[in-house]
Design brief:
Strand 7, helix 6 (202-209) and strand 8 (215-221) form a beta-alpha-beta unit. The protein is 38% helix and 25% strand. The protein has 8 helices and 12 strands. It has helices at residues 17-29, 55-83, 99-107, 124-136, 165-178, 202-209, 226-236, 259-267; strands spanning 4-8, 32-40, 87-94, 112-116, 141-144, 156-160, 183-190, 215-221, 241-245, 248-251, 254-257, 272-275. It has 2 domains: 4-144, 3-Layer(aba) Sandwich (Rossmann fold), CATH 3.40.50.620; 156-275, HUPs (Rossmann fold).
Length: 276
């Protein structure tokens, strides 16, 4: 049951789709929604040894960061007010490098965390928040594509299955969404690397069906790679929502993602719930 949701609020005024989508999820489940806006510490410019950074620069940078967080929180508050949701916004001062871990720690106290897909390779903070929350929060993470236009829609849901622990965790975490689908497609990609004897997916399809879900089993021949195969199926089948396990590990605080996880995070076209 999803009754408590947290969303990381992007600070750019043209990235409001994440807050809008989070509101639609909270509305669907009649859940409380908490919005988190980070006030980032100023990044000081490079200066010659012994040259001090002007106090005015620091003050202006701090004011600009505060204004961005205030605007993101105000936009969020107006959205939830119009919907009459139980909600609240929270602002935290933090160094950019510390934001991903802080958000992951915050997310541990919620049923679901909602984050943004990074828009480009230069958008390192959204990428870091998504990955860190996936691997350190201990709960499911719903990643919203930067191209997302619509509210939550669950007519066609796709669930990826390879017999692994993360895939099983993702299905359990996503069951409140799956139950509301008109049709759930259980995807098994034939990649010759099974993680259990149940890779064909018959048993897990029966398990999902016992929750009152209309489920179909789709065994897909792998094309270029697993990620591309999944993305092609999403496009060809008009999928609204994707569920999959998140694979990877941490090495010296850098996350090394599995191939399919990396492909989906980089090229997703539909909201994707991941669990690790």
């Amino acid at each position: 049951m999803i009754k408590d949701i947290v969303v990381n609020l992007p600070l750019s005024p043209d990235r409001t789709q994440t807050a809008r989508f989070a509101v639609s999820v909270a509305r669907q489940f009649q859940a409380h929604l908490a919005g988190v806006a980070f006030v980032y510490d100023p990044v000081l410019p490079a200066v010659d040894m012994g040259v001090a950074v002007p106090r005015s620069y620091v003050a202006e940078a701090q004011a600009a960061a505060q204004a961005k967080a205030d605007a993101a929180a105000a936009d969020f508050e107006e959205r939830v007010r119009r919907d009459g949701l139980s909600a609240g916004s929270h602002k935290f001062n933090v160094a950019t490098v510390g934001a991903p871990t802080q958000f992951a720690e915050i997310a541990r106290r919620f049923d679901l965390a909602i984050v943004s897909q990074s828009e480009s390779n230069d958008d390192v903070i959204d990428s870091a928040i998504a990955e860190t929350t996936l691997f350190e929060s201990g709960g499911p993470v719903l990643v919203v594509p930067y191209i997302q236009k619509d509210d939550l829609k669950l007519d066609r849901v796709a669930v990826c299955w390879d017999g692994s622990r993360p895939a099983a965790r993702a299905i359990a975490d996503a069951m409140p969404f799956i139950r509301q689908s008109k049709l759930t497609s259980l995807i098994v990609v034939d990649n010759d690397q099974p993680k259990s004897t149940d890779v064909p997916g018959i048993d897990i399809a029966r398990h999902i069906a016992r929750h009152g879900v209309n489920v179909e089993l789709k065994n897909l021949p792998m094309t270029v790679d697993v990620g591309t195969t999944i993305l092609n199926f999403i496009s060809d089948s008009s999928i609204d929502f994707l569920v999959m396990g998140g694979y990877g590990h941490s090495r010296l605080r850098q996350f090394i993602l599995g191939g399919a996880t990396r492909s989906i995070l980089e090229s997703m076209t539909v909201p994707t719930l991941m669990s690790h």
